[in-house]
Amino acid sequence: FPTRRSSDLADMEEGISYHLIKEEGPDHNKSFTVEVKIGETVYGTGSGRTKKAAEQEAAYKAILKLKKQN
Predict the structure, then answer these.
(1) Could you tell me which of 68, 18, 62, 56 has the C-alpha nearest to residue 43?
(2) Are 15 and 39 a contacting pair, CB within 8 Å?
(3) Deepest in the core among 16, 19, 26, 38, taking most CB within 10 A?
(4) 7 against 65, higher pLDDT
(5) What 3-state DSSP class applies to 51?
(6) Cα(56)–Cα(14) distance, rounded to whole angstroms?
(7) What is the largest distance, in Å, between two alpha-carbon atoms of the chain?
């Protein structure tokens, strides 16, 4: 079973994409909002002072959503 599960996860990772949906504020005080999609479905949205921080928050929310589904 572990091999099957690892394969499913790898397939899912190939379909993960991050999209910047909002960028606001002056250069010295930017705020970014990013959504993470698996295929065409949005699984999480995050915001932060950097794109990376917004992506990490979106990914965390996506993981929580996926855990609830299982």
Answers:
(1) 62
(2) yes
(3) 38
(4) 65
(5) helix
(6) 17
(7) 51
